[in-house]
Design brief:
By secondary structure, the chain is mainly alpha-helical. The chain has 5 helices and no strands. Helix 2 runs antiparallel to helix 4. It is elongated.
């Protein structure tokens, strides 16, 4: 999808597009890891409060959650840097041509 949208013309643009794909794939995986982490922690603790089970799970050992969040934050920063760089490179091209291509792809 990214290659179709931006149609990279140089190796640099192709690399930035690949970075976007990698980051999106990793963010999807990390979301799944978060779900599994919550499920695993809930299963480990059989005596959770009915009112605040998530709070208890998180506060019993927040380190894995915090490490995961740092990884998510880092991946999102990488994604946005690559996107900004790619957009900046695309802007150096004929903007009318780029706009027409993007609009045609979105239609």
């Amino acid at each position: 999808e990214y290659h179709d949208r931006f149609q990279p013309a140089t190796p640099d643009e192709r690399c930035l597009g690949d970075t976007l794909v990698d980051c999106e794939w990793l963010l999807r995986r990390l979301r799944r890891v978060e779900v599994e982490l919550w499920e695993y922690r809930m299963e480990l603790n059989s005596r959770l409060s009915e009112d605040t089970p998530l709070d208890e799970v998180f506060n019993s050992n927040p380190d894995p959650f915090m490490r995961l969040q740092r990884r998510i934050d880092s991946t999102q920063r990488t994604y946005h840097r690559a996107l900004d760089d790619l957009i900046a490179q695309v802007r150096t091209l004929d903007m009318d041509e780029v706009r027409a291509e993007i609009e045609a792809q979105q239609a």
